[in-house]
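Before drawing any conclusions, I looked closely at one protein, both as residues and as discrete backbone shape codes, quoted below without any editing:
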Amino acid sequence: MAELAGAGFLAPPLDSIFTRSADANPSVFLTFDDGFRDVFEHALPVLTQHHFFGIQFLVSDLLGKTNLWQQRVGDVSQPLMDEVRVREWLAAGQQIGSHTRTHPWLTRLSEDAAREEIVASKKALEDKFGFPVEHFCYPYGDWDQRVSDLVAEAGYRSACTTAAGINPPGASPFALKRFTARYPTRNLKAMWAFLRDLSKS
């Protein structure tokens, strides 16, 4: 984050992805999947320090619980943000989005079941926190046109995938690409090299 700030980048709320002008300062949009408590503990102070904004995609039925979907495949138990921490996250000016009710593979569900995961999570988060939930993230990056249509139908304005890449003007707001900072961490120099290679492919 210090490197991005030092290079003159802004990290505005995700809403501004729809209103950025061509001559705007360079920006990155910071997204966090699943609602892990350690994001609240470790990322929020850093975001605040640099006047950066991020969005936390929450699994609405699992607030204050653990990452059950990962434990089923042998991962360790990790705590998720509870209602109090989500409220503090919002009070600090950060955003929340939906990551479904239970973190399923949406393309493996019936249309009705997928719609319930997508629609009910939005309603639950809005009812609980009193903020509009306009952005969605596909669990596991698992989506197809049917799922994307359900997300749009539910009233979301955007949806994030796990595909690597940038989002040029005119890109579908329901298939936003991202770069993971987890496997492995990349500094800006390595990221520029990655983007150059991507543009040649």
User: Anything to note?
Assistant: The mean pLDDT is 91. The radius of gyration is 17 Å. The first strand starts at residue 30 and ends at 34.
